[in-house]
Amino acid sequence: MKNYWDQGISFEEYITIAKERLENPSNQQETEYKQYYELGLQRMDRTLKKYVPDEEQLKELTSKNFDGKILIISEAWCGDASATVPALVTFFKGHNEVKIFLRDSDKSLISQYLTNGTESIPKVIILDKDFNVKNSWGPRPKYGYELLMKHKADPEAYPKDNFYNDLQLYYAKNRGKDAVQEILELL
C-alpha cells in the first residue's frame, strides 16, 4: 500500500491534471470525456466554495484519535467523485494526510476494491500510520446507492436520467456530509 501512497497526488495536482486534460486532451478517452472533465471541475469548484466541515463531525474525528492516512482512488471526470472528493479533502485537511491515486493510471489498485465487479470510484482507503488497510468506502453514500438500486430495480419507472438528476441534486444539497459521516464510522 505504501507504493500506491507514494504514487498518490495532492488534491491541487488532481485539479491541475483535470484542467490539463480538459484543455489539451492527450488521448481518445480524454477527448471523449471532455464534457465530464468540465462538469467535474464545475462541481468540485462549487463544493469547495460551499462545503464547510460540520463541527460535530470534526469533534467525532478528534475523539477517534485516528492517526492514519486517507487514499482516494478517483478520476476528475467521475460525477460521484466530483461531489465527494473535495469535501473529504477539505474535511481531513489539517487532521490527516489525504492523497489521490488516479484510477486509470494503474488499474492494479482499483482491481482490489471492485464494487459488484466494477471499477466504480471514488474509493476511499483508510490506512493506519504503517500503511495497513483499516477499511474502505465508496463509491457513493448509502442514499446514492439506494437511488441506484431504485433505478436498477425498474429502469422504465425510474430512468437513468432521473437517477442522475436526483443523485446530483442530493449531492448539491448534502455537500459531502453523508460521505464524511460514513467514513468517520469506519475509522
Describe this structure in words.
With 187 residues, this protein is an alpha+beta fold. It has a single domain (2-139, 176-184), classed as 3-Layer(aba) Sandwich (Glutaredoxin), CATH 3.40.30. The protein is built from 10 helices and 4 strands, in the order H-H-H-H-H-E-H-E-H-E-E-H-H-H. It has helices at 2-7, 11-23, 28-32, 34-50, 55-64, 79-92, 107-110, 142-153, 160-174, 177-184, and strands spanning 69-74, 98-102, 123-127, 133-137. It has a 4-stranded mixed β-sheet with strand order 2-1-3-4. Strand 1 (69-74), helix 6 and strand 2 (98-102) form a beta-alpha-beta unit. Helix 2 packs antiparallel against helix 4 (34-50) and helix 8 (142-153) packs antiparallel against helix 9 (160-174). The chain is globular. The two termini are 17 Å apart.
Tell me the overall shape. globular
Distance between the termini: 17 Å
Unreliable segments of 5+ consecutive residues: none
Which percent bin holds the helix content?
Answer: 55-70%
